[in-house]
Write a structure and sequence with these properties.
By secondary structure, the chain is mainly alpha-helical. The protein has a domain of about 90 residues. About 70% of the residues lie in helices and about 0% in strands. It has 15 helices and no strands. The longest helix has about 30 residues. The protein is globular, with a radius of gyration of 20 Å.
Amino acid sequence: MNERSAALDACRGAAVLAVIVLHLGHFGVFPPLPGAWRNVPDMGMFGVDLFYVLSGFFITQAILRPATWDPRRFLMARVTRIYPAYLVALFLSVAAILYTRGIDAALVVKVMLHLLMLHNFMPGANSAINGVFWTLGVEFPYYVLMLAIAPFLRERQAFWFISLTMLAVSVLWRTGAFLWVGAEGRYFVATQLPGAIDAFAVGGIAAALHLRPDLHRLLAQWRWAVLGAGLAALALCLAYFYRHSGDYWRDPASAMLWRSGFAIASAVIVLACAKMHDSPALARTSLPWIGKISFSLYLFHMPAIELTKRYPVASGWPYDLAEALVIMFVASWLCWRFVEIRFHRPSAPVAAAPAAATAPAAAATPAG
């Protein structure tokens, strides 16, 4: 029987809401915030990093938890988790492009690249159909990489060597992008899988710690202290970003190192949330429910914003905001209800489990 952690669903919900706020502000669905609040929506970019950390957590659990490793089952779970809803969003996005601009050879090439999850290999194609699809061009290669190295990750010593290597590769990749790529192409290069793999890696480290029997009781007992430490570190990272929001990709510390700090702080929060018990107070925030539909919400919020800007129901930003939110939540719930859960029914528990049940398979060892 599948169990879900409401706290981890809430993390998903917070991540997708952060990205939505970023894009609502970027596309002018609501006016610029006054004074010191002006740059706050830009921090929504880190919602993607939180998603990566969560993916690393869940994917690593899926590798370490089973007593025996079944690569076919792992691959099928990953494909059914992402591909059906992605195909629906891709089809509708392409239909909208055909309606407004028609077809040409470039569009055909971009669609083929998206179908094969290769769109990040061609600059200009990664966000050409739906602005958020570029992150799936990072996620899916990560799944393939984890499928290839899963047998090694299930060995404890190899796990730590690989995880630390991922962290080093990410920092070196972003350093290279900063030093040798011009400012106009730096974002594209730095955010590809090698530059983002530190977020996945620290999520995986959090999963390994979560599964260790000798740490289970300690982490469960100190979960609120761990959560507080993670939130404090996250606040420091966001404060630094706030100071450099105008020159993030031109500031050496931001471009090369600071994303790793944010990922580590996020992983500490995810580790704490994995030990949390469900509570009515958390449910009342609606974050766990938003987290359940977060993947569809992530896929459909950009088309909803663009549709609102093209066909507003009334004049004024409050109407635009209301229209965009209604479209994205209705479309997302429908996709979640009739596509996501129809094709993907995870069986491994996600919530905190007794110590005996959380030992890594190799300890003896949505996405995500």
